[in-house]
Design goal:
single chain, two-stranded antiparallel sheet, mainly alpha, Ferritin, 313 residues
Amino acid sequence: MNIEEVTERAGPRAFSPADDMPDEYREAATRMIQFHANSEVMGGYLDKAFTRHAPSLDRKLACTAKTQDEIGHAQLLYRAAETLGVKTRDEMLDELAAGEGKFLNCFHYPVDSWYEAPMIDFFVDGGAMRRQATLKTTSWEPYAHAMDKVCFEEGFHVKHGESILKELMTSSKAVQERVQETFEEWWPRIVQFFGPPDEDSKHDDFAQAVGLKTASNDYLRQSFLDMYIPKAEKYGLEIPDHPRIEYDEETGRYELEYDDLDWDEFWTIAQNDYEGSEIQIGSRRRRQEAVAWVRSALDDHETRASLAAEAAD
């Protein structure tokens, strides 16, 4: 099958590992799913940090559970990527630890306060839900199946973040001001979460043509703004003046001034070359190295078991 036939056939859950696929499709699907899996891992590390900052035992338990969910999502996605036959799970994890694996922009920024928790757990996860819901009909069937579970759990994550935001924004005036300051810092990053404008996206056209993506970056960003700006205002947050976003009365939509965003920083992050990237990636690398002995022991056990089975035969 050539890529033209793939494009013609692309539709909801159209392809499975048993199908004949051109290398171009397999590589594109692997790149996309690996990026998603890496993002789940790195997002989990932010929630791990929030566990330390959480103000109560209940909040700490919720953050711990969310961290476990995110790492579990990553495992599902790495396995879905493996079915394409391009890379193994271990290869993808090694690339992430080596600084070669790419992941979403918001997870390159280290966090150091509880006020940042709703920025990730409500706004970023809310954006993720907008994206992931469209992937339930991606053309790679194992990916679509994984999204059923991921989206179910992400819905709880967004509610968790909304609960934190509500609690903070009904607290003291000083706390509300801190949340507003944090929101102003994170807002441009959140708006860039969906990636570059469609015209500047390197892989968007192909991914949509073969059904890997079912919605463009700009469509998802617009959908997010229309839904989450009213939610932010509901809880008393003021939308920052930068980037400029104007409400169009005729269309009922929020119009974003793309040029107000720092796309140079975005592309630096995309290359894992941002000042915070090494902090985040280094954290992942140290943890992978810390449990290397476990993987080695498991491999040795599997080897001995295999040799024993051969000897018994």
